[in-house]
Amino acid sequence: MRIVMKFGGTAINSADKVIHVANIIKSQKEGNNDVIVVISAMRGMTDELLAMSEDVKKGDKVSITSFLENTTKSHLSVIDMAVKDVKLKNEAKYATTMLLKELKDILGGIVLLTEITPKSLDYIMSFGERLSTPIVSFVLRDLGMAAEHLTGKEAGILTDSNFGEARPLMDTTKLRLVHKIEPLLKANVIPVITGFIGADQHGNITTIGRGGSDYAATIISAGINADEVWLWSDVDGLMTADPKIVRDATVIKEVSFAEAMEMALFGAKYMHPRALEPVIDTKIPVRIRNTFNLQHQGTVISQDLPKESQKIVKSITAIRHTALIDVGGGGGMVGAPGMAAKIFYALAKNKVNIMMISQSPSESSISMVVRKNDLDKAITTLDLNLLGKVVKQVSVNDDVAVVAVVGSGMRGIKGVAARVFNAVAKRNVNVIMIAQGSSELNLAFVVKDSDCEQAVRALHDEFELGKIGLN
Ligand code: ASP
Ligand code: MG
After folding, report:
1. Which residue's CA lies nearest to atom 8 of ligand 1?
2. For a Cys staple, 89 with which of 44, 60, 83, 385, CB 3.0–4.6 Å?
3. What angle in degrees, to the nearest 10, is found between the helix axes of 118-125 and 45-57?
4. Which numbered ligand comes closest to the C-alpha of 128?
5. CATH code at 436?
6. What residues does ligand 1 touch, defined as CB less than 6 Å away?
7. What's the whole-model pTM score?
């Protein structure tokens, strides 16, 4: 079998953990599999690099120095404890020191300009993965395996130049990946590749969006025709609900790509919103596994599910602390084509992301949900551009939650909506707004945030998700 295995930042942030991860890789390799490894930055590193770049903009040299000191210490100490062979240890330390020197030079240059372009920000952000990946590779070598570390750029991930959210150009990427990776696999070498980063056609390093290591793993899998992708992190799998809200939440054994997309958007395990795209096209199954619980089989995300599994509601998810905006036009919006277009165009132009929309057939108002940190921008945009013209009033409810029931079991089955709203009503929760896409994979509604947990528990009970006894 050919498996791409991605390890998240929490799986590699100490020497013990890196050794543990290396042993997981080793045992798969010895099981006669082709193994390709993708590595995230150590936990917290990407956030720190981001914070660092803010300090750089302020010209804060002191902060750069202490950041570099801490980063040097944390990475070198992992190497010190994880790599036993002296020659390898020195080689690893040297490689790391060179990278840190490169980072220091860049930061030192930029701090004088007190300005960071999206291009240089991506370059800076790439250091999280570029520092962590070689460490895993050296530990594998220390365990007697042949391994080679590569950046996403070196491996062949070609993207557009949309720094921060770059998209892969899949056709060329595939050709390049095959060209680079196949010979390594033939020679029995384990490629250990940085997640999160690629390069544009001019060779500039790009990043593919926060949480993008999963995405890099699926891009690589599609490129080299892997049989499966395993995303290793510190959770057992996708869950029927947030265990912090529902005590008997369980791990879901299998979901379809379409269901998983809904869950990712609704925050079950944070996944890059496009992470499943490359494997949906190629139908490569994705497994979510826990590095700290090897007995657990995790969740499988795949194209075709057994009949039984297609019949049920799978999870109740919630996005907390969002805001509801109601745009009313008085009589002026009724039967006036282009109203919605004007509203959404203005918001889109100002980069406000809208999570949910609803309009009643009376057409007298349009309701939408946005994240709280977009609220200010949204209201300002509406006030400046539309208020008093097409829009008569804008009202806001600034602490709501979106609750969603997800599962293909709702498709074409009567009475699910009735069960959902009955269950919620029984707990005395008021529903403020409702939306269901016609795919019927997701029924979402809005409640006051303080009612959210009640609603999630009510639905988890109603559909007996604690009992689906999945793993
Ligand atoms: N290190 C990147 C981030 O924190 C990518 C990832 O971890 O998936 O967003
Ligand atoms: Mg991450």
Report:
1. 211
2. 83
3. 140
4. 1
5. 3.30.2130.10
6. 9, 40-41, 46, 128, 195-196, 210-214
7. 0.89
Residue 254 inside a domain? The answer is: no
342 domain residue, yes or no: yes
> Is the residue at 63 inside a domain?
yes
Q: Which atom of ligand 1 is closest in space to residue 129's alpha carbon?
A: 1
- Do 211 and 341 fall into the same domain? no
Count the residues in the chain. Answer: 471
Which of 201, 218, 234 represents a domain boundary (last residue)? 234
**Among residues 269, 278, 330, which one has the least CA distance to residue 298?**
269
Q: What ligand 1 atom has the least distance to the C-alpha of 216?
A: 8
Span from the CA of 345 to the centroid of ligand 2 (angstroms): 32
Of 209, 234, 259, which one is at a domain's C-terminal end? Answer: 234
CA nearest to 468, candidates 244, 248, 236: 248
The H-or-E segment that residue 160 falls in is none
- pLDDT digit string, tens, across residues 173-232: 999 999 999 999 999 999 999 999 999 999 999 999 999 999 999 999 999 999 999 999
Q: What is the mean pLDDT of each run of 10 residues along the chain (471 residues)?
A: 96 96 95 94 96 92 95 97 98 98 95 93 98 98 98 98 97 98 97 98 97 97 97 91 92 91 72 90 94 94 81 88 89 76 92 89 88 94 88 92 90 86 95 84 93 97 81 42
Task: For residues 358 and 229, state if they share a domain.
Answer: no
> Which ligand 1 atom is nearest residue 213's CA?
8
Q: Structural domain tally of the chain? A: 2
Helices 127-142/61-82 angle, 10° precision: 20
- 228 shares its domain with 320: no
Domain extent, residue 189, equals: 2-234
C-alpha 455 – ligand 1 centre gap (Å): 32
Instruction: Tell me, yes or no, whether 11 and 124 share the same domain.
Output: yes
Residue 469 has a pLDDT of 53
Specify whether 188 is located in the same domain as 337: no
Tell me how far the alpha carbon of residue 454 lies from the centroid of ligand 2, in angstroms. 30
Claim to verify: residue 81 and residue 225 sit in the same structural domain:
yes
Between the CA atoms of 262, 263, 266 and 270, what dihedral angle is there, to the nearest 10 degrees?
A: -130
From the alpha carbon of 209, which atom of ligand 1 is closest? 9
Distance 40 CA to ligand 1 centre (A): 6
What pLDDT was estimated at residue 357? Answer: 92
For residue 51, what is the enclosing H or E element?
Answer: helix 45-57
Going from the Cα of 385 to the center of ligand 2, the distance in angstroms, rounded, reads 38
- Is residue 333 in some structural domain? yes
| 333 and 193 both lie in a single domain | no
